[in-house]
Amino acid sequence: MGPALRNIFFQVFQREVYITGTAFLIFIIITYFTGLFVSNYFGKRVFARGERVVAKIPIVKSIYGSVKDMTEAFSSDKIKSFKEVVLIDFPFKGRYAIGLVTNRVELNGVRHCSVFIPTTPNPTSGYVILAPESDLLFLDMATDDALKYVISLGTSRSGFTCSAKP
Question: Measured in Å, how far apart are the chain's first and last C-alpha atoms?
Fold first, then answer.
């Protein structure tokens, strides 16, 4: 972006002009207008068409789909992922880790929960464990507080209580 701006400034001012942070400012302006464009009806349609094109590219579609699903799981109010905080025996019986319920499935007539156990101090990595719902201790704790607890290495003042509901 720097050379393009240098050429534009040279054409306008007939000499070389360098203003610190100009490229960053233009980046912010372009990002803002892109957001405005995508938020209206026409922009949403163009964006959806672009997503369909990306979904047809062999390697990119798997990466894009995974990143999109994870982003929606963390940010969307419509999806119930990460809405329930649990304690799970991990890494072995008698030791507990905080986990986030991501999905529920039935296996052999027993209801199981898919639990994401975030690692400290980077909660975007972790373990996914399928555990019987009856083995989980559901916490009366917000997801944000659980993530703060994990990121702070357990020093967060976010208190939690166990509920009896399976």
Answer: 56
What size, in residues, is the chain?
Answer: 166
User: 68-85: per-residue pLDDT in tens?
Assistant: 777 766 665 555 567 788
Give the count of beta carbons closer than 10 Å to the beta carbon of residue 74. Answer: 15
Distance CA 161, CA 145 (A): 12
**Residue 49 per-residue DSSP state:** H
Give dist(CA 12, CA 26) in Å, integer. 17
pTM above 0.70, yes or no: no
Over residues 17-67, the pLDDT tens digits come to 777 777 788 889 999 998 888 888 888 888 888 888 888 888 888 888 777
Mean pLDDT of 105-117: 90
* Strands across the sheet containing 84-89: 126-132, 110-118, 96-107, 84-89, 137-139, 162-163
Tell me the domains of the chain and their CATH numbers.
Answer: 2-54 (no CATH), 84-163 (2.30.30)
